[in-house]
Every structure is written in structure tokens, then in C-alpha cells.
Design a protein that fits this description.
The complex is a heterodimer of chains A (282) and B (353). By secondary structure, chain A is α/β, with parallel strands linked by helices. Chain A has 12 helices and 10 strands. In chain A, strands 6-7-8-3-9-10 form a 6-stranded mixed beta sheet, sandwiched between helices. The longest helix of chain A has 18 residues, at 190-207. The relative contact order of chain A is 0.15. The longest helix of chain B has 18 residues, at 211-228. Classes of the chains: A alpha/beta (282), B alpha/beta (353).
Chain lengths: 282, 353
């Protein structure tokens, strides 16, 4: 049997601040475990408020932060053993990241096609620029763009949604099997948000990419996730099938979180208007 | 549980039509005028916007980033600096002690109505409060010039105000970093409302907050509004917040107001294709139907498309949309829209998805 795609086992991350006398300890991630199967691509969501440790956890999965204790294995291999340049590049070609604000992720003075070309030349066997361009075009087609639209343009010439799609295309250049997306839509306008969210679905269904989706937005989490965990102050308080957990949360914190979500459907429930939203539902 | 945000169902709010609205914005155009390499460029951030806000209501303003909503509220507050200029139109307030036309006031008169009549709740509480001074100094800096009380009287006034908003007066001694994000935002709200202003502008006050905290801050704004009988212009791109908080809702797209009506009517029966799409594409817990994103991207305000600015993305666009900008027309009572198709036949506006 093939090893799991990703195994996170009793992972802890402790940040200490201050010196000998005034030592302060921040237990950012506390005993977190989960795993993603290799043969079944899925959208795995990590929900938490600010300070819940979700971004720290993402950093450890991306092998940019070492865990204080516990083990993270990618295809059976401990991330700690991935140290040499060659091994790191190999790992990065399989695990890619997408960040919150695409305008921060791209250098405003650098043309965006160059990110795609350098990703192609670094992570794949495409050494010549023609091959790299071909590869970039292929990745852009997966996100509904093409190289012709992107070539020679700078980040400020694109809208947030387009740029985030380019960021996803860049992550797809190396044909990764896992994408870690940290709040990928919170900076994107409402009319473009669903385009990006639907893209994650497509990556999972058509290209077999597993996605770790980190968010604080329960509604989009419900919409795309297969499984999820809810984190509070570094601990996983609840986890399981996304629809089950969000429909009927059990832990007091998850219940509180679920109740705090403002919903359009609930807005008029207590007034004379009870018919839902007929003009839209039909 | 949500009902606490909206204590009066909006259908019961009967507003006397003859009453003078607190704020009237008429044909307002505010452009950024930039001269670059000898070439004049203008960005039409606010293009021919007219709206009225009544006393004692929360008016929501929704729109994407760069749809001009921040430029609009800055223009309404009289807080614009070049290159943003008012090209045409007027902003008039009917305060209890007399009418004011914001762009006919002297700078001195303008600063006299700020804070006491017109105040502003900003998005980033950390950039409002000075990080190296205690909260009490922030109150002194902002509010002292606008109230008659001085010294110990002023401190008592501030403490009484905080208690009224269910905040512990001990926060006055704290530094901003010692408070949580939600607490800081409550403090900036207390700061903005200390003179019981008649008109409050709230610019994305909950966007940076976690969901659990957000609800508390929203109910605080609703409570203040009811206690003081103020009007609130509430700006956010979060449609769920609008659904739960605001009485009336205006939707902006590319510098123009495209739809306006009672919030419930707008959600129940959107009359502009953009609004219809926004509402139908909201993901909801319990709803597994696939949602579509809108193709294309918002137009550049420096070079907007001719005619209706939404037409390149609009599934209903007809020939006239490409040539003529639709005017805002009242189609249903109190419900206006700027859409040629809806004006011909409101039933044709359907969700895009």
C-alpha cells in the first residue's frame, strides 16, 4: 500500500520569547494530528480565528518552520530529513503554497510571466524558454487564463481575482500533489471570489490535487471542503466530515463559531417575512 | 439570535415622505485629477451619485474594492484632498440646528460640525489610536475641542459614555496594544460617538475582526444608533452584514450607484443584474448548490466602458446598454435601479448563476 500523501502526527510548535528571567511561552500549535490519503484527492479545511495557530501549522506543512515536537511526513518521508537543496526542490515541486493577498505575493516591479517561467525552469525538466513558456501556458489554461493574456504584464495591471488565479497557476506549474492555500479568497472581491473557490474544486476533481484550505469563513468552507478541523488556541477542538460538523457542531467553541456566522437566510427569520428568498431560490 | 441586531423589522418602519432627509447627495461627481507627463488623466471614482439618508436609519453601502465607496464617503464627510476633487453636485445635511452644505462651509465651520454632528468610525483601530499613548489621551485629542466640559468634568463625561456603551472605564488607562482587536474597535466607536453625533459614517468597522467578535461590535453599533437616534452610513463589502444590520442598502459598481432600496427588498427582489449575482453567489451553510463566479473583472475607473459600466460582464446586456448609461429610476416603491433591462421589464432580472 502506498503511504499517505501527508501525515501530521502529534505536532507541537512552541515559540518562546524573552530571556532567562522573563520567559514567555506561546504554544501556537498543540498536539495536532491528521492525514491525507494518497489515492483520494480532497479539500481539507483548517478553520480558526486569528491566533488559532492555523498559519503556523501551514508553515510547518510547507517545511518552512520546523515543529518543536511531533512528525510531519510527506509520502512517508519525514520533513526533517529534507534538507539538501535537491531534496528541498523536489519537495517544493510536490507541495505548493498560495497566500492571502496576491498583491503582496508578487513583486510589483517584476512581470508576472517571469514567476511562471522561473517556476517551470526550477521545478520541471523544462530548461529552454520555449518549453517553460509551453508549461506556463498549460498551467494558465487550467485556471482559465492564457499566456497571451498574461505575458509582459505587471501585477497592478490585473484585478485581484485574476492575479490570484495567476498565483494558483504558478503553483500548478510543477504539477504538485498538494496545495496549501492560506486564506486565498479573503482579499478578493465578492464577484470574483466564487471563481477562485470553484477553481479549487476543479483542481481536486479534474487534476487530482489535494488542497489544504485555511480560512475563517465557514460558508466557503462548507461549500468546498470534504473534511475539516476547527482550531482554537493551537488545539483541534473538532474535526470530521465538513458538512456534518458545520451542520451540527458539537464542541462549545464550534457551536459559538457557527452561531456567530451572519447568514442572509436568518436575517429576516424573526420578522413577518419567513418565506426565505423566493426570488433567488427559484 | 440575529434579531437583536435588527430590533424593528424594516417593513414596520414607516418614514414620513415629507420629512427632510438628514443627508441629501445630489448628482455628486468626485474625480481624481492627475497630470502625468503633461497628460491630464481623471479617475471617475464617484460619478453622478444621488442618495438620501433619513433620520434614524442605518444605510448600507456595498461594493467591491475600487468601486468608489471610500471616495464617496470621504466626499460626504468633506474629508477630501487633491487629487480628489468635487466636480459637480452637492452634499447637504439637515442637522437639527440648521442645514449645512458641506462644500459651501469654511474650513472652520466644517471642523465645528465634525465630531459633534458628523463622525467617522474607521477600519483599522490600530491606526486610529496612538500606540504609545493611553486611551484617555485619544479621547482628549479627539473630543476635548468639541465639548464644553474640561478637566475632571471631561473625564466624568467620558466615563459615563463608556458605561453607557457597556465598556469598563478602566480601558482609559490601557495602551492600545493591551486591548484585543474587538475591544479596540469598541473604543474607537465610543470615541466617535462621544458627542452623540446625528450622522455617523462607519467604514468597514468589522472587516478586520474575527466572526465571533464581529457580531458584538455590530450589535453595539445598532444599540448606539437607536439610543441616540442617529443615522449611520455603514460601508462594507460583506453582504451578510448588510442583510443583518442595515435598513436600506445602496449597491455601488465602478463609481456609480446601481441599485438602492430597503435592504430586504434588495435581497428578496434584486433589480440590477450585478446585485442579483452578488446575492445568488453567496455561499451559505446548508446550501450545496454550485455557485458561479462572475466572468471578467471590474472596469478601470480611468477608462470605464461606455454606456452601462456593468455591460461587459452582464448576461442581460442589450444594445442600448453599450451606448447609454442608464439613469437611476424608481421601479418599485422606494426601490431604484440603474438598468435598462430592469426598467423595461423588472421580471427579466434573474441571478446570473
Amino acid at each position: 500500500m502506498r503511504p499517505n500523501l501527508l501525515e501530521v502526527e502529534h505536532v507541537n510548535k512552541i515559540f518562546t520569547r524573552g530571556g532567562f528571567v522573563s520567559r514567555r511561552v506561546n504554544h501556537a500549535v498543540n498536539d495536532v494530528s491528521f492525514s491525507l490519503a494518497a489515492d483520494k484527492p480532497e479539500v481539507f479545511t483548517i478553520i480558526g480565528e486569528s491566533g488559532s495557530g492555523k498559519t503556523t501549522l501551514a508553515g510547518m506543512i510547507l517545511n518552512s518552520l520546523p515543529p518543536t515536537s511531533g512528525q510531519i511526513r510527506f509520502r512517508g518521508k519525514d520533513l526533517r530529513e529534507i534538507r539538501s537543496r535537491r531534496a528541498r526542490l523536489e519537495f517544493m515541486s510536490h507541495v505548493q503554497a498560495i497566500f492571502q493577498n496576491p498583491f503582496d505575493a508578487f513583486n510589483p516591479l517584476k512581470r508576472i510571466d517571469r514567476y511562471l517561467f522561473s517556476a517551470a525552469q526550477r521545478f520541471t525538466e523544462c530548461r529552454t524558454s520555449e518549453k517553460a513558456a509551453e508549461r506556463a501556458d498549460e498551467a494558465l489554461h487550467k485556471v482559465g487564463l492564457s499566456l497571451a493574456e498574461v505575458r509582459g504584464r505587471y501585477p497592478h495591471e490585473m484585478s485581484g481575482g485574476q492575479l490570484q488565479r495567476v498565483a494558483i497557476a504558478r503553483a500548478l506549474v510543477s504539477n504538485p500533489s498538494l496545495i496549501v492555500a492560506d486564506e486565498p479568497v479573503s482579499m478578493i472581491d465578492a464577484s470574483l471570489r466564487m471563481t477562485v473557490i470553484n477553481l479549487f474544486k476543479k483542481l481536486r476533481d479534474e487534476f487530482g490535487v489535494s488542497i489544504i484550505y485555511i480560512t475563517h469563513d465557514l460558508a466557503t468552507a462548507y461549500y468546498i471542503s470534504d473534511r475539516l478541523i476547527i482550531m482554537q488556541k493551537g488545539r483541534v477542538v473538532e474535526g470530521g466530515d465538513a458538512r456534518t460538523v458545520l451542520a451540527a457542531p458539537q464542541h462549545p467553541y464550534s457551536i459559538k463559531l457557527r452561531q456567530a456566522v451572519l447568514s442572509v437566510d436568518d436575517a429576516w427569520r424573526d420578522s413577518s417575512f419567513t418565506g426565505g428568498m423566493p426570488a433567488i431560490a427559484t | 439570535m440575529i434579531a437583536e441586531l435588527r430590533s424593528i423589522p424594516s417593513s414596520d418602519v414607516v418614514k414620513a415622505p415629507q420629512a427632510v432627509p438628514l443627508l441629501s447627495v445630489d448628482g455628486l461627481k468626485a474625480y481624481y485629477k492627475v497630470k502625468l507627463f503633461g497628460i491630464d488623466r481623471e479617475v471617475r471614482a464617484v460619478d453622478d451619485v444621488s442618495l438620501k439618508i433619513n433620520r434614524n436609519e442605518i444605510y448600507g453601502l456595498a461594493g467591491e474594492s475600487s468601486s468608489g465607496k471610500t471616495s464617496l464617503i470621504k466626499t460626504i464627510a468633506g474629508a477630501i484632498r487633491p487629487p480628489l476633487r468635487v466636480v459637480e453636485g452637492s452634499v447637504r445635511f439637515a442637522f437639527k440646528d440648521g442645514e449645512r452644505d458641506i462644500y459651501k462651509l469654511s474650513p472652520h465651520e466644517l471642523s465645528a460640525i465634525r465630531w459633534s454632528h458628523l463622525s467617522y468610525i474607521m477600519q483599522g483601530s490600530m491606526s486610529v489610536l496612538n500606540p504609545v499613548r493611553r486611551i484617555k489621551h485619544a479621547f482628549a485629542d479627539f473630543a476635548l475641542p468639541h465639548v464644553s466640559a474640561k478637566g475632571a468634568d471631561f473625564t466624568r463625561l467620558v466615563e459615563r459614555h463608556l458605561k453607557r456603551l457597556h465598556l469598563d472605564p478602566a480601558v482609559l488607562q490601557a495602551y492600545p496594544h493591551e486591548l484585543s482587536g474587538g475591544m479596540r474597535q469598541r473604543v474607537t466607536i465610543a470615541l466617535a460617538t462621544i458627542c452623540s453625533p446625528e450622522f455617523i459614517i462607519a467604514d468597514e468597522p468589522t472587516t478586520a475582526l474575527d466572526v465571533i467578535v464581529q457580531k458584538g461590535v455590530l450589535s453595539m453599533i445598532r444599540e448606539i444608533q437607536q439610543e441616540f437616534g442617529s443615522s449611520v452610513l455603514f460601508v462594507t463589502h460583506d453582504m451578510a452584514v448588510h442583510a443583518n444590520l442595515t435598513d436600506r442598502l445602496g449597491i455601488m459598481y465602478a463609481g456609480r450607484l446601481v441599485e438602492e432600496g430597503r435592504t430586504r427588498d434588495v435581497f428578496k427582489r434584486p433589480l440590477h443584474p450585478y446585485t442579483a449575482h452578488l446575492i445568488s453567489s453567496l455561499p451559505r451553510i446548508g446550501d450545496e448548490a454550485p455557485k458561479k463566479g462572475l466572468e471578467g473583472s471590474p472596469p478601470s475607473l480611468a477608462d470605464p466602458p461606455p454606456g452601462c459600466r456593468f455591460h461587459p460582464r452582464c448576461p442581460l446586456a442589450i444594445d442600448i446598454c453599450r451606448r447609454e448609461a442608464p439613469p437611476m429610476v424608481e421601479i418599485l416603491p422606494g426601490h431604484r435601479t440603474a438598468c435598462h433591462v430592469a426598467q423595461a421589464d423588472p421580471a427579466r432580472v434573474r441571478p446570473v448563476a
